[in-house]
Batch of 4 targets.
Target 1
Amino acid sequence: MLHFDEIAFGPIYSRRLGSSLGVNILPREGKVCNFDCIYCECGWNRDWRSGGHFPGGEDVRQALEAKLSKAASDGIAIDSITFSGNGEPTLNPEFARIVDVTLELRDKYFPEAQVSVLSNASMLWKEDVLQALIRVDNPILKLDASDDWLVKKINSPAGRYGTDEVMEGMKRFGGNFVLQTMFLKSPDFDQAAPEVLERWRDIVRELKPRKVMVYTIDRETPDKSLSKCTACEMEAYVKPLVEEGFDVQISG
């Protein structure tokens, strides 16, 4: 399973973001996430118990500036500075401050690069988190299912989570965000059932994100019963949205 031992890592090539410099603002010794997704490339939460600390703003400043300054001096391209890492980045108590630090360093070294955050959108009810996500170039917000039952099957959220509340938070972006959905095949549910797909499409229509990213399994998953969807299958899932003018990116 994938695990990140540094605050700043890469850059690596991303299917969705190009040359991406990763930022992990979660404990390096384990995984911290309020989701336990059946497809998570970092594995089950129980396998990565962490006693480590969250890096603070100054920790991130030092690690990120070292990477950015070296990439700039070596002529290495960076298209995106991407918050991902060992879990959900918005759980870091200094998330808002770290976003400000990242934007400052981006402007100094790679002003053309995008700052992206891959988030499960579970903390949008926190005003400081929501405002920080609004400030970045690419708030990439996950919604893998259109109702709480299916979210529980796919993501196993802990604590406060409800699709209706998450959607209310997403609406505050005024469409200036990227909606990300994982499509996969499981013996326990059918994401491609017509009524399930139509509910998901209706959510897209209601939220009107500037871009929709749909993707499928790319690495080993903790649940071994899963299989990936084909690009052709995902094209069929999103065809009505594309015909309505939505910008949809498919990563198969």
Target 2
Amino acid sequence: MTSFMQTKETVDRKWYVIDAKDQPLGRVAAKAAHMLRGKHKPTYTPHIDCGDYIIIINAKECKLTGAKLDKKMYYNHSMYPGGLRERTAREMKEKYPIEMMERAIKGMLPHNRLGRQMYKKLFVYEGENHPHMAQKPTVIEL
């Protein structure tokens, strides 16, 4: 008996919605990354992008446990001398909740071409509304 190897032409993609309201950031990110990779499918093939489309709503209302709001730092550098920018998780959650969620998920995907391809199937929104109702997404409970 031979092992099943999926090809990119035979991938069946579905749309899913994850509600991040009152959910820990890491739990939401781990579930989203798992589904973006396609590891929840029996036809998972490591070298093929066989994951599904993920929509995350209420990114602004996700939780961070412990003292992470004040102690966790996010760093950016402009590549110029003195161009380091530091932000706390509290500041990111208030001003840039979409970027905070996207960074958490992107860090859990492969860091290569395949990971960049998977990342394009992620859609994050601050509030309840999203423009993907025509795709009839299925709601995922955490």
Target 3
Amino acid sequence: MTYTLCALLGAALLGLDQWVKWWTSSRFAAPVPPHIYWTPDPAREFLPGLVELTRVHNYGAAWSSFSGQRWLLVGLTSLILLAVLYVLARRIVRHPLGVLAGCLILSGGLGNVIDRVRLGYVVDMFHLQFWPAYPVFNVADICVVCGAALAAVYYLRFYEKCDKKGGPHGDADAAAR
């Protein structure tokens, strides 16, 4: 049941990510040289004083690292997604927090891979007004960051008690029988 609910949430978030990227691309002009990253349209308030909407084409990863390395980023992200999918499919992680973390990472990573393969860049749109130097991000980035944070909490607080096999707390599989 946990896997099904988390998979449905992940699919909904992937759909939301793709819709928000489409909406942003249809409402803001595309970046043009010499500014190939930022739209020429002014940003629009989303949450006044907190978040504004804009359109940015990110040709790299976080903070534009690895910019221009499209296929390297697609390959590395795909390998990470396959590893997370393997862990979930083999039910190596069974605690609901760990499953949720994996599904968030999958939906966010897949959302950005779709953009990179289809467009050659990732469409970003959320800009924090109170932190101007912070990069512009999207729904997929939010999913990946939240999933990674939840994965860290899961690993530090629940992995050993719930999912570790043969650890100091016994065999999780034997306890489930």
Target 4
Amino acid sequence: MKASLLSPELLIETPDKTRRLAKHLGGLLAPGHCLALCGPLGAGKTLFAKAAAEGMGLPFELLSSPSFAIVHSYESPRGLLSHADYFRLDSLDELYMAGVFELDWTGNISLVEWADKFPSALPEEFLLLSFAFVEGEPQQRKLFALPHGEKHEALLKSWVEFF
């Protein structure tokens, strides 16, 4: 299925395709971009985050899920990357204690896994990427993309042209 801005839904047949798409998107990211990754456990959020970082010039293996540290930061050729994971958090107080509200959303590139747990802990503008399983197809995923803000609309448009 071809994605468009009117119907930003994409069928991803394999984890390799997920990695290629994410790597390409990573190559488009710039400071001020935020990817909010949502979906059930095992749907591909961390794979996508690692591949996006790879597209930013970082080794694929470098990124690990920051479930216990909440936020990891990495210097990349495209700018400072903040990778957050809200999976293990239960309250906004825990986000405050982890320093999430002190992140420089406009100066950093941000990847946030489990972003739907705390939407108020996202910047005003971001690209929502929601992963869903495809029934009967264990390798396939549906990816829904929804931009919030002009900068992320332009990002999605550039990325969709890759498909």
